[in-house]
Amino acid sequence: MWRVDQVFLARSGVRTEVTASLVNDRGGLRNLSVVAPTEDPAEAVRHAARFVAGKGNVSSARNARVRWTREQAASEQDQLVRDFTLEDEFLDAFEETLQEIRDRMR
Length: 106
Description:
This protein is α/β, with parallel strands linked by helices. The protein has helices at 41-53, 84-105; strands at residues 2-12, 15-24, 29-36, 58-60, 65-68. Strands 1, 2, 3, 4 and 5 form a 5-stranded mixed beta sheet that branches.
């Protein structure tokens, strides 16, 4: 099973590209990208969380870090800054989607 480790946001015109970096217990790494049809970062991470959780083989997003990509950072320090509000948005939407999937499977 995979888990979400980091989430990167990048503005693309009036849309937001969201890339989720996934890891597994065997050291595997893969990325899932989705373009959210919004400029609003909170809605974009919710959109991405629903997309990632719907893949079916991603079990957790706990402790996932959300950051803007290097191109969006105004300074070197900005690259290190985590957005805790967006992390909460991502985790909540991810958990809600997983719960909906589990409910449908019953």
